[in-house]
Amino acid sequence: MGKREEVRRRTFAEILDVAGRMAEAEGWQAVTIRRIAAEIGYSAPVIYQHFANKEAVLRKLLERANADLLARMRSAVADEPAARGPHLAAAAYLEFARSQPGPYQLVSGGAGTGVDAATRRAAAAEVLAFTRRVVHAWAADSAAGPVDLDDACDLLWGTLHGLAGIGSIEDVGFDRALHLAEQAVSALLGYWSARPAPPADPDAPHPHTHSPHVRGEK
Amino acid sequence: MGKREEVRRRTFAEILDVAGRMAEAEGWQAVTIRRIAAEIGYSAPVIYQHFANKEAVLRKLLERANADLLARMRSAVADEPAARGPHLAAAAYLEFARSQPGPYQLVSGGAGTGVDAATRRAAAAEVLAFTRRVVHAWAADSAAGPVDLDDACDLLWGTLHGLAGIGSIEDVGFDRALHLAEQAVSALLGYWSARPAPPADPDAPHPHTHSPHVRGEK
DNA sequence: GGGAAAAGCTAACGGCGTTAGATTTTCTAA
DNA sequence: TTAGAAAATCTAACGCCGTTAGCTTTTCCC
């Protein structure tokens, strides 16, 4: 490892670091190429040796945020019964939105972060895909019939997005959002598991079988 | 009416008009004081005779958008049975997000519109309040027990927010979002009306009584 | 040790929101 | 009708922004 590249790497990391801290402290609107450069003790053009433009900096941060969110959802669900998957994933999602407001704003495209919509969409695809996996695992476990699961997946995802938005409103708060999410997930899952089977079999009104775990990845 | 004030009023309206059109055509990021001024044939400082600053222009547009959204939800629900209120209000919300993407972005705070969060929050309060009224009317009608209706209201609102976000993603689309919203509302309403009354009374499994209308306003 | 390559800086461009100050237009009142 | 007040409007400028060009210095490699 040349000393040169070592410094490069450190500077690269520092740029992202400082940008993240500035966003946390003063909001994404206050994050500026010139200010980042000043903070790390360089002149502004140096940033362009590491990133093509400002959006590239934000994009990198968004990718990290997304990976972080995904990891949290994954680990929340790992080694837990598939039946609880949706609840746990939802809680992890909201917990991320609460504890990492800056990164979450990047992920959800809030508050003029300046990241292009297509980029956000692509990043969100991973989270959506994971949500799909969780719901499918739940369905396989809970003996839900041949419903349109894609509906359930997208709906869950949309609900999370909406509730996270609610959570960041002072008057509502994340505790309440978490409470609401729990009910929403119950309602949605109940709706889908109640649909395919007409209430003619009073044997299993509440399928609560313990069962296989959700795998982390494909 | 002095000719002076007449011109003032026209200019005021023109500023908002041009700003709205520019946003529709090129996105809110492209809306600029200087460009607005050029478009209406004035120099930039003239704008400041009508608005304190750029945010004030956006704020006015946001207020209008909010009033428009509210009016659409109201008229969607008017003269319809309260039982259908939540479904109709949800559809109207999504329809607004589809047909007026620019204004809706303002309302929902998307894509760096530059409007302060507190302002958006205050504006959204009206829509939330109306949502509450619709849900309460539904509850009064559908013999739902003494559930915590606030949960239902906020959840509905959050779901709409989330689904509208989904709708504006190309790969999903508003038709699908509408479809999802219908299911979500059914699921949530079903959840809340099924909760308080334990299934011991097989007389009314699906309370579908036609009944009083939702009033437009208090 | 010398020459290529990388890293860094200053200066500048065009654009932004916004303000100050001068100038023109319009209204009002004697 | 006309002088003076008030309103409208303009040009210039300030300090910021993202970004690029071009030059100087440092570093590495042969």
UniProtKB/TrEMBL annotation, chains A, B:
InterPro entries: Homeodomain-like_sf, HTH-type_TetR-like_transc_reg, HTH_TetR, MT1864/Rv1816-like_C, Tet_transcr_reg_TetR-rel_C_sf. Keywords: DNA-binding, Transcription, Transcription regulation. The keyword Repeat does not apply. Residues 9-69 form the HTH tetR-type domain. SUPFAM superfamilies: Homeodomain-like, Tetracyclin repressor-like, C-terminal domain. Residues 198-218 are annotated as: Disordered. Residues 207-218 have a biased composition (Basic residues). The keyword Transcription regulation applies. Gene3D superfamilies: Tetracycline Repressor, domain 2 (1.10.357.10). One of its GO terms (molecular function) is DNA-binding transcription factor activity. Residues 32-51 bind DNA. PANTHER family: HTH-TYPE TRANSCRIPTIONAL REGULATOR BETI, HTH-TYPE TRANSCRIPTIONAL REGULATOR RUTR. This is TetR family transcriptional regulator.
